[in-house]
Write a structure and sequence with these properties.
Helix content: 10-25%
Structural class: alpha+beta
Largest sheet: 7 strands, mixed
Radius of gyration: 26 Å
Strand order of the largest sheet: 1-4-5-12-11-7-8
Distance between the termini: 88 Å
Number of domains: 4
CATH class of the largest domain: Alpha Beta
CATH topology of the largest domain: TIM Barrel
Number of helices: 13
Strand content: 25-35%
Bound molecules: beta-D-galactopyranose
CATH architecture of the largest domain: Alpha-Beta Barrel
Length: 715
């Protein structure tokens, strides 16, 4: 009796203790299909505050109302040790995507990650350039944790003893179906703060949840047209004369070029930087930039934000910087208006006002050995951790703001971003340089609300150069980063012809790229994304234990099959890059008919094909009824208002439809309605095709010249 009473007492005490820790979540539907849950007392500073963007209400409203995507009560929160713990339900057949810019896998179920801004170090452990705390479920919803802390995720690994779905334990000695990772029915997070905001995005499809997330963060950035052309980053200590010569050579050889990147050598000192021109290499910056613009070339300047004692604003900014330095440069506390005014007015007056078109914001991600340590302090009182998680966001936000005020679009590069950064005019890149993993990152960028470029630097062989170049042309930024190698598109003579044809193809496809980026902006659809988001692609979790040798490795895991080497580019294209040494490859074609991009021939339907494309091609396929608008292979992007001839390519047999976007390509006047969507319809006839395009609306931009209709699928 006595023992029973004691036990009851302990049980009551435990349940009381447990309740004291468990937290109710206050839910509200903040926009159609978007819910916010508040746990405990969220911190004043978080990712959304750092990004400071506002939702695209109109587009979210258009997506419409939806039900909460699962049982709300199944989200459980608790507070222990000053940390918030969150648990989200996970069904047996669910696959998970996202959790930031991962490089090696697309499927994230079973991962344990610490989401932490860093330079990618070769392992998918959560430390990456954009560790966006956002995941998407194959069941069609998304979850975002709005915190500027390093947070831990167990994406379906822990099994609680009180789980309603507790699996039946099995005997490994005798039971072949024993699993080293039994079914876990939860995604769990630990956030080192006494409260947090969470957001849930409805589907019904996974792509809908992504669209809602992107629109909630303002929608993707609409780049200027020139941003979608070709860019070359020149060697770090190039002089004005050398840059001019390089540009001349591009023109002379007939290679497209829209903007040129100057690397650290444009500054009088770098690492840490002065943010002023080097007068030896660039004796007259103003004239140099103006001459470039006259030739149709924009300039993009490299910088990292660490300030040299020789910077003109050093003394004034010094009290507004971190306790710790980076390469002995001081780190401005960009959450302080005065620090921002000093730092950004230098960029504005010295560079942007003389015509510089954008930046490459380097080294805001990490490498623990050079960045400020977690014990650093900042004058605003924000922690080193919060600053590290958001520094990339802050740099993007405030540089973008300068251009926005000038009604001028920019497009540049950045090495760190995070949740909330979707609408910034930047593409992520890094130094890791692994072609295969670059493609997986490109796929995952679509889950992380960011853009990624598989940049080309140098290669061991012409084959590698060409293969990397081909992928790069089907990415958000077509770029050679020759800062140290000095390579040019034509550096490998054995593949020069092919490289040139792909550089020109990039330009020809500009109407398609531009429209697809407009969809990113207005509708939230990522222009580059995983096959898993494509209708007709099988997303089921594959739990088959193929080729596992459990005797040799008793804990070997059944890995579900994933496609991480092919992706969707825009509405209609499926791109399957070739890697060095590969002669053939398999391509998974989802349900529905697919056609060869180059020839229009039927390629397959809901099947896996094996292709041997030769060096001249990167395998690309078009969906049935696909329409690809193309322009002549110009060497520069069309200027504002310039009339351009259009070739409208049509593939397959289904009636084709496409909405073609256009505006001035340079300003934000589209926000005042200065844009047009023109409807293209194509139908097959007995001996060809019949196509029409809607007339331009009154007082809207009309830039179309002659139109040619091309039937690609002949038979
Ligand atoms: C690296 C960057 C390179 C190049 C270089 C210049 O950090 O990733 O692309 O800009 O700095 O020093």
């Amino acid at each position: 009796m006595k023992a029973a009473r004691i036990l009851l007492g302990i049980a009551l005490l435990l349940s009381h203790f447990f309740k004291a820790n468990s937290q109710s979540i206050t839910w509200s539907e903040v926009m159609p299909g978007v819910w916010k849950g508040v746990v405990g007392s969220p911190e004043a500073y978080d990712l959304l505050k750092a990004a400071g963007t506002s939702p695209n209400m109109e587009a979210l409203t258009k997506l419409g109302k939806a039900d909460f995507p699962f049982v709300q009560q199944n989200i459980v929160a608790s507070l222990r040790d000053g940390k918030t713990q969150l648990r989200f339900p996970l069904e047996k057949n669910e696959q998970l995507y996202g959790f930031g810019l991962n490089f090696q896998t697309v499927h994230q179920r079973g991962k344990i990650l610490e989401l932490h801004v860093d330079h990618y170090g070769g392992k998918d452990n959560g430390r990456t350039h954009a560790p966006t705390p956002f995941y998407i479920s194959s069941n069609g919803y998304g979850v975002f944790i709005n915190t500027a802390r390093y947070l831990k995720v167990w994406a379906g690994t822990g099994v609680r003893k009180d789980s309603e779905n507790f699996p039946t334990p099995k005997d490994r000695n005798t039971d072949k179906t024993w699993a080293s990772r039994p079914y876990s029915d939860a995604v769990e997070f630990q956030v080192p703060a006494a409260g947090v905001e969470i957001y849930v995005f409805a589907g019904p499809k996974p792509l809908d949840a992504i669209k809602r997330y992107n629109l909630f963060n303002g929608g993707g950035y609409l780049p200027p047209k020139w941003g979608l052309g070709f860019t070359q980053r020149v060697m770090t200590r190039f002089t004005a004369a050398e840059v001019e010569k390089e540009i001349y050579t591009f023109k002379e050889k007939g290679y497209p070029l829209d903007f040129v990147g100057l690397e650290p050598g444009w500054q009088s000192k770098a690492y840490p930087g002065t943010f002023t021109w080097d007068m030896g290499r660039f004796p007259n910056p103003q004239k140099f930039v103006a001459d470039m613009l006259n030739k149709g070339i924009r300039l993009n300047l490299w910088l990292n934000p660490y300030v040299s004692p020789d910077a003109p604003f050093y003394k004034e900014i010094l009290p507004l910087t971190s306790s710790h330095t980076v390469w002995l440069g001081v780190v401005p506390d960009l959450t302080l208006p005065k620090a921002r005014a000093l730092f950004f007015s230098q960029l504005q007056q010295n560079q942007i006002e003389i015509g510089v078109s954008g930046y490459k914001i380097d080294e805001v991600d990490g490498y623990d050995h050079y960045l400020w340590p977690d014990v650093a302090t900042f004058p605003s009182g924000l922690s080193a951790e919060q600053m590290r998680q958001t520094y990339g966001l802050l740099m993007q936000r405030y540089t973008a703001e300068i251009f926005k005020k000038r009604n001028q679009r920019t497009f540049g590069l950045v090495r760190a971003s995070n949740g909330g950064g979707t609408s910034f005019p930047y593409v992520l890149y890094n130094d890791y340089y692994n072609h295969e993993d670059f493609i997986t990152a490109l796929i995952n960028s679509g889950f992380a609300g960011v853009l990624w470029t598989p940049e080309v630097r140098a290669s061991k062989t012409g084959e590698e150069w060409l293969r990397r170049f081909q992928s790069n042309v089907f990415s958000p930024m077509a770029m050679i980063n020759a800062w140290s190698s000095g390579t040019k598109p034509w550096s490998y003579p054995e593949v020069e012809k092919q490289v040139k044809s792909f550089a020109l193809l990039r330009m020809q496809m500009m109407p398609y790229w531009y429209t697809e980026f407009a969809k990113y902006h207005f509708e939230g659809t990522p222009p580059f994304r995983a096959m898993n988001l494509e209708d007709g692609f099988n997303q089921q979790l594959n739990t088959e234990k193929a080729n596992l040798n459990l005797e040799e490795n008793p804990y070997a895991e059944a890995v579900s099959k994933e496609i991480k080497d092919q992706y969707m580019a825009g509405e209609y294209l499926l791109v399957a890059p070739m890697f060095t040494g590969q002669v053939t490859r398999k391509v998974v074609l989802p349900k529905g008919k697919w056609y060869d991009f180059y020839t229009g021939e039927f390629a397959g339907e809901g099947t896996v094909i094996t292709v041997t494309p030769g060096l001249d091609k990167i395998p690309v396929y078009v969906k049935d009824g696909g329409i690809i608008p193309m322009m002549p292979a110009m060497l520069h992007a069309p200027k504002s208002g310039e009339k351009i001839d259009l070739e409208i390519r049509y593939y397959g047999e289904k009636p084709g439809q496409y909405l073609l976007y256009d505006d001035d390509g340079e300003t934000f006047n589209y926000e005042k309605g200065q844009y047009s969507w023109r409807q293209i319809n194509i139908q097959r006839t007995a001996n060809g095709i019949k196509g029409n395009i809607s007339a331009p609306e009154k007082n809207k931009p009309n830039t179309l010249g002659k139109i040619i209709w091309t039937l690609m699928t002949k038979s």
